[in-house]
Design a protein that fits this description.
Blueprint (H helix, E strand, L loop, with lengths): L2 H7 L2 H16 L5 E5 L6 H17 L3 E5 L6 H8 L7 E6 H4 L12 H4 E17 L7 H10 L5 E4 L5 H13 L4 E4 L3 H10 L4 E5 H10 L2 E6 L25 E9 L4 H15 L2 H10 L2 E2 L4 H22 L5
Parallel strand pairs: 1-2, 1-3, 5-6, 5-7
Antiparallel strand pairs: 3-9, 4-7, 4-8, 4-9, 4-10
Length: about 325
């Protein structure tokens, strides 16, 4: 059925609601696009946001502005996006903590699963277990033995309560029986500074933001959290290989928009992101970050959020994670 035939068959009220959505999709972008990164600069979410901002600006003929709005494990920035105009001009780089581990917060003033429209899963990556260069732990086995033998002795950093880094570490504690002190930050960047300085002892950090410090010799990689070894760290075992059988977890990053963003506009933005991330230059940058580009459809992203929410809700319930 052609669009004009479809419109002609609709009740007047439906036509009135339908036409503005079509107009918004066709008019986009009519002004600069704001991409909210709900974490501090220098973390992988920030890096990925900036990675896609420049080519999208060229494709759209409009500025694409990154706005870091950290706090409450990303929920302050996410709430801002949820309450923004649903016209495509406000987007967000999201994470597990926002889209799938929000049950750890009982007093949020918005509903992540209802108030945000998924655009795509942008990328996925294993995390890497990092300790300072001067740490006494030469292997993951050394770290695991001490963490299990001395509950509460070690402190680990994260990008905030409920962040992907927090959740993959909570899963490790649950499966290994180790117990550590959680020190939340407003992003990976400041947490890594304290890890290098020895204020905290370990991080289950994203490979992309941790790799520069591994290469510089400031941090030591003990294990990776995925189901298989990473090509960028071929001599580093998986957590499962190194002593926690069955453990596997990855971090992932999304692009999302306000709930009432028209489906046609969400699909167009996803397709534009797919185009700008499919170039050889973009592929090389993703590889250098240690992440795998995904860029699936809004429908696929929605289904993935649902399945991941079930997975992480089990961890939240078993670990009794209550963050407010």
């Amino acid at each position: 059925m052609k669009r004009r035939d479809l419109i002609g068959s609709l009740p007047a009220a439906s036509v009135a609601a339908y036409l503005p959505r079509v107009a918004r999709a066709q008019a986009f972008p009519g002004k600069p696009v704001r991409v909210v990164v709900p974490f501090a600069p220098a973390g992988i979410a920030d890096i990925l946001g900036r990675l896609i901002a420049e080519p999208l600006a060229q494709a759209w003929g409009q500025q694409v502005l990154i706005e870091n709005k950290a706090g409450a494990s990303g929920h302050i920035g996410a709430q801002d996006v949820a309450r923004s105009a649903p016209d495509g001009h406000t987007l967000m780089v999201g994470t597990i903590g926002i889209h799938a581990a929000h049950a750890s917060y009982s007093k949020l003033t918005y509903k992540p699963a209802e108030d945000l429209r998924p655009i795509t899963i942008l990328a996925e990556a294993a995390n890497v277990v990092l300790v300072p260069a001067g740490s006494p732990y030469k292997t993951f086995g050394d770290f695991l033995a001490d963490a299990k033998a001395h509950p509460g002795k070690l402190s680990y950093g994260s990008a905030g309560p409920g962040s992907s880094i927090h959740m993959v570490t909570a899963l490790f504690e649950l499966m290994s029986g180790a117990r550590m002190n959680h020190v939340p930050y407003k992003g990976s960047g400041p947490a890594l500074v304290d890890l290098i300085g020895g204020q905290i002892q370990v991080m289950f950090e994203n490979i992309g933001s941790g790799m520069v410090h591994i290469k510089s010799g400031k941090l030591r990689a003990l294990a990776v959290t995925g189901a298989r070894r990473e090509a960028t760290l071929p001599n580093v075992p998986t957590v499962a290989e190194a002593g926690v059988r069955g453990y596997a977890a990855t971090s992932w990053w999304t692009v999302a928009a306000p709930r009432d963003t028209p489906a046609a506009l969400a699909e167009r933005i996803q397709q534009d992101i797919r185009r700008v991330t499919s170039s050889p230059q973009a592929a090389a940058r993703f590889e250098a970050l240690g992440v795998q580009a995904v860029v699936n459809t809004p429908a696929e992203a929605t289904a993935f959020f649902a399945s991941e929410t079930v997975k992480w809700n089990r961890v939240i319930e078993a670990a009794k994670l209550r963050l407010d």
